[in-house]
Amino acid sequence: MAETENPAVSRIINSEIVLQHFGYWPDFHDAEITKVVFETYPTGRYSVTFTIEVWEMVNELDEQGHYKQAKHCLIELQFIGIEEMEFNSFNYQNVIFDLVFAERGSNIECRFDSSNGLEAAIVAEEVLVISLTPTQR
């Protein structure tokens, strides 16, 4: 499923990288967080970067009766200038039900709704797509 014209998504720096790869902004359903890095800076600001394994579900079944997948990639998503953060239940497998972005004043709010593992909510000054690396699966 794709998000339609979400103003918060349009504020994500380098969001066009994701839009070019998928043709839309995905909802990250069943994506898996494979890495999280917290960083501090002498300025007093800090950031958190998520590496997320993402793909598109195709409306076609494979031999086992599972939906086929396409456009596999790893996306590095960084939140800079964090104002608020909740981070719970990170474990060996962290599957997202969906990733929800919204504007909160001059900041961007993001909620990681979990299917398994990590539940997180972040309010940050900026969100940045650091990279999108196509992968084979």
Task: Summarize this structure briefly.
With 137 residues, the protein is mostly beta strands. The protein is built from two helices and eight strands; from the N terminus they run E-H-H-E-E-E-E-E-E-E.
Residue-averaged pLDDT, rounded?
93
Question: How large, in whole angstroms, is the Cα Rg?
Answer: 15 Å
| Main sheet characteristics | 6 strands, antiparallel
The structural class is mainly beta
Stretches where pLDDT is under 50 for at least 5 consecutive residues are none
Explain what the structure shows.
- It holds the Pfam family Imm50.
- This is Imm50 family immunity protein.
- The structure is a single chain.
- This protein has helices at residues 7-10, 15-22; strands at residues 2-3, 25-26, 32-40, 46-61, 67-88, 95-104, 107-116, 119-134.
- Helices cover 9% and strands 64% of the residues.
- The protein has one domain.
Task: Give a quick set of tags describing it.
single chain; six-stranded antiparallel beta sheet; Imm50 family immunity protein; 2 helices; mainly beta; 137 residues; 8 strands; Imm50; 9% helix; two-stranded antiparallel sheet
